[in-house]
Amino acid sequence: MVLNELGxxxxxxxxALSKExxxxxxxxxxxxxxxCGALLESDVNVRLVQxxxxxxxxxxxxxxxxxxxxxxxxxxxxxxxxxxxxxxxxKEAWTPRKGRQNIIMFVGLQGSGKTxxxxxxxxxxxxxxxxxxxxxxxxxxxxxxDQLKQNASRAHIPYYGSYNEADPxxxxxxxxxxxxxxxxxxxxxxxxxxxxxxxxxxxEMVQIAAAxxxxxxxxxxxxxxxxxxxxxxxxxxESVDIGSIIITKMDGHAKGGGAISAVAATxxxxxxxxxxxxxxxxxxxxxxxxxxxxxGMGDITGLIETVQxxxxxxxxxxxxxLAKGVFTLKDMRDxxxxxxxxxxxxxxMGMMPGMSPEMMQGFDxxxxxxxxxxxxxIFDSMTETELVSDGKLFDDEKRLRRVALGSGVRTVEIxxxxxxxxxxxxxxxxxxxxxxxxxxxxxxxxQQMAKNPGAINPSMLKQMGGMGGMQKMIQQMGxxxxxxxxxxxxxxxxxxxxAGGMGxxxxxxxxxMGGMGGMGGMGGxx
Length: 526
Fold this sequence. Notes:
Distance between the termini: 43 Å
Strand content: 5-15%
Strand order of the largest sheet: 3-2-4-1-5-6-7-8
Number of helices: 26
Helix content: 55-70%
Shape: flat
Radius of gyration: 26 Å
Structural class: alpha/beta
Largest sheet: 8 strands, mixed
């Protein structure tokens, strides 16, 4: 049972409760029986499951609840809080600070995904604007340096390693010294793994740690081991100074929930979880967003963080056009390019509230990415005059055929793109211009909203005309039904609580979103 299936089981149990005409002790027991069964199938420790059951029963005392109180909400809140407690290590993890040099050392057993996780973490910090370097001190496994070099080159991250030096401690010292000299913010050192917990492994880790003096030691753990993660985490914690843990292979194995709950029980902070093979398949772990996303309630914090990493506020021309109520083909291209860099489509959709695991089943993110990239080819085949237009130039069949030949697609695909552009252009036109709410905001406020989409401060709200202005904006978009229609366009009808409209969702989202683009810039070294 993978995490999506676990979330679907728990979500189904909570939905079944909401359909009950009478909420009593019997209904609560049925709910807890289904949830506990799902957790046990996900290899969560029996003791932890029993503890969750007891805590929920303690929180929800049917005799004390008044007959008029919302029992469903009380029960659902209790279940959510206890699920969060189940995976919460209750300890703050170390984070690198800008303005100083941070050294991170990776340790773990062989085959746990340690080398891949090094590059994923380096790419993550690079997106945060930090200067990151990788050091390969794994001289035990054949091909370890080749793997790290290939991954680092793909992510455009500088690396250091040697085919000639056999001493991992010397390589680590030389690599860290090199990157320190060049004023790197984050230096990540990859060390050798072993097939089992050998004394030699720990001795080597201690020697490297003494040489490079890491600020944080990250233990990479294979999530497929399930409950065994408890003993492994404790063993490493007793032997070396483990600062935090990354759990890998969480994308398709039955024991992922067991691994997370087991590590949390040791109070070792989990910083990230690996959810795939690609560079962007590393998600920051936090108990509440994790449970919320698993249950289909979204991860707004993660979505905002992803948007902020794209630095939308730097696209000044697009922000000015939006304020004027103008939406050109170039603006649409810039938006799609930004979405491409946000990561895989299914990951972004999973952060959106209302996207339950059932709704995600059968969604083809790869096909969506392919479709979006074909749209980018269409944009690349247009002239600058065509890009800064509203698309009406393509009423000319000759232009249409020329772009189709240049991009290698059929004319019907270009017409579909132009149709989507017109749809979003109508929304922008209503919200922008001198009478629209975006048009009334000064450019600084627009930039601030783009920079921090998670908050609208009182001054910005005042510029938009207060709450009355917000209501007027909704009216300009066609009232609440207009907002719903816009969400249906963006989500393909998937904003509700069931799995309906999945075909529309796939069609629209495949056009509007996709996988990760390139990272930009730097080569490697030896």
